[in-house]
Amino acid sequence: MMRHASRRLFALAAAAATVAGATTAPASATPTAQQSAPYTAAVRGLAPRVHRTAVASHVASTRAKGATRRVTSARPLADAARVAPSNDTGPKPTLHNFNGTSSRDSEVTNFDARFEPPDQGLCEGNGFVLEAVNSAFTIFRSDGTVVRGPFNVNDLFNEGSEEFTSDPRCYFDASTNTWFAVILFINAASTEARIDIAVNSTGDPTSFWQQYQIDTTDGGGLGCPCFGDQPRLGIDQHNLYVGTDEFSILGRRFNGAQVYAVAKKDLVGGAPSAHFVHFANLKIDNARAFGVQPALTTGSSPAEYFLNSLDPNGTGDTRIGVWALTGGARVATGGMPTLSSTIITSEAYSPPPPSPQKGAKSSIDSGDDRMQQTQYIAGQLWGELGTAVTTSNSGSARAGAAWFAVEPRLAHGLISGAIVRRQGYVAATNDNVLYPALQADASGRAAMVFTVTGPSRFPSAGFATLSAGSAAFGGITIAASGTGPYDPKAGRWGDYSWAVLDAKADAVWLATEYIPPRASQTSTGARNWGTRVLEVAL
């Protein structure tokens, strides 16, 4: 993912945050008329299906798959009640646990090119697990046995191997027995950009995929040609949803968050083109919206919901944005759905500070406090983000995770408000928690995955679980210990982990970044990341 400093001034004065185990009172907010008004700046379109032609040329891309940004340390803004969670509390019910696609896989499928960060996507269904990273993908059996791969990730999207792509995500939709994947694309001349969508409606990810493309160049936009950064994936019974942030390809102009709704019926049916609707340059709180995350919706829903963090100055905030898209069925017939938003009060969050690691003087980039993965299930909208936290044994800020379970409300086809039903933090007593992702079941049980790192721990894969009705996640379990420090010359980590619900097993598939065994690292030891894939019973 290209993280651009134009989003925020990263002089981070952090709001104080309590940690796992602390409780806060549910909060709600009533939207103003402006906040709940429907967005009218939307266009209808048809995304063409791409037909496979020549074999991809075997030339490695010279474009760096990502861009670094400046990060400074955070400090608490105010004192708060601190509760130190337990750490390494013993075994949890892990059903599967294996090494995923790695920096070595990315290197060997990209002609010795080495990338950071992995930005992994994860999807599971019909006994298969597909994990895509920058810039490779592998198809596994659920026990970790490799079925196909690794392959260059561009093969999945029918792009030549010299083309720049980044930020893959994927999802298996059990209701249609279909696999979906998305990625951003920028051409070699930096004059065109698009969202690539790959679809496999056979239920077998090793068989043929079809591709669709949506142009995001926005020739008339400010500072454009532009691209849609970090395409975020959501789905409901009607549509596939992609949220992006529009930036100049060659500059730092930011034009606001974008939302695309693509008719699932067209994609699943292999139509020559797929109906879509584009909501452009979104605003919230009278400012450009950023990082609007569409939900992975389990079951039917009266709307497709979205979450985003606010924090316009990068100094911490106590609000989140809640969005609803209603009338989604209209997209398939060329109609226009309605998108609206509101703001509610939440627990405090702020950009996390850099995280130390064992065996190195260099720190790991903890990212920022944008909303990560979002899910809607059984009337609850779940989300999580990275934040600065303080623990009982230390007054200094460290990286942790904040999570939210929100009940959205509709009136007359618009979002009319939302209530925070549960929220809290996950933090480690002596370590840092980076890049969380969570999924919940219909009973309110959840699992969260993340990287764990600290002065006495190499970057490792960890997770925690939440019981139904509980106010806090339990202690952290290390699923795979890191084998060494991250390359001190590297600057990136993340940019996101991923989680997906296995409703049949009442379990969650999780994937995150860590330092794997030497055999999974690049041949030179540079950019020596790997990923861990696991399934946790709820």
General form: globular
Largest sheet, strands/sense/barrel: 10 strands, antiparallel
Rg over CA atoms, rounded to whole Å, is 21 Å
- Helical segment tally? 3
Low-confidence stretches: 1-34, 53-91
Distance between the termini: 31 Å
Would you kindly provide a written description of the structure presented here, covering whatever features stand out?
- The longest helix has 6 residues, at 103-108.
- By secondary structure, the chain is mainly beta.
- The strands form 5 sheets. Strands 2, 8, 9, 10, 11, 12, 13, 14, 15 and 16 form a 10-stranded antiparallel β-sheet that branches. Strands 1-24-23-22-21-17-18-19-20 form a 9-stranded mixed β-sheet, with no helix packed on it.
- Helix content is 3%, strand content 47%.
- The protein starts with 27 loop residues before the first strand and ends with a strand.
- Mean pLDDT is 87; it is low at 1-34 and 53-91.
- It has 3 helices and 31 strands.
- Strand 22 (380-391) and strand 23 (394-411) form a beta hairpin.
